[in-house]
Amino acid sequence: MNSKVERALNEQIHAEFFSFYLYLSVAAYFTSHHLDGFSHWMRIQAQEESGHAMKLFDYLIERGGTVQLMALDEPQREWDSPSAAVEAVLKHEQFISQRINDIVDLANGENDHATTVMMHWYVNEQVEEEATADTLFHQVKMVEGSPHGLLMIDRELAGRPAAADASAQE
Ligand code: FEO
Fold this sequence. Notes:
Layout: H1 3-32, H2 36-62, H3 82-109, H4 113-142, H5 147-157
Helix pairs in contact: 1-2, 1-3, 2-5, 3-4
Bound molecules: MU-OXO-diiron.
The site of MU-OXO-diiron has 7 residues, from helix 1, helix 2 and helix 3.
């Protein structure tokens, strides 16, 4: 396959696995602050991120590309407040969306139509992920300073169902 696209997809596998790491780190932060619903939600999101990485992993192999896994940086572990932790997640999703858009541009420029079509799944997924993180951030900001409000959100987040298998989704 096209070597520029192959490199970009490998870098995106790396970015998705870093997302997995970041969400796990945020989950650990919330566990240490006794917000188990937030922690549960972040763990499920970490699973989704691993699914995003594996969907690209499988695609690269299917196209005859070579998977090259790279070292992961240590994610941040502490935040000043629950809203700062959720904001970190929101900013990260915005960063990921930009990367996804760049890959679509690259695939278009290289006339790699199959990659363009496959990456549309990620474009749509990012719309949802950014919107979800944005809503959560604003809700947490809204109740800042109110333990009662935070516990209500925590209870709601505890009900997030297990992650869907992204690699099985069209
Ligand atoms: Fe895989 Fe949350 O982006």
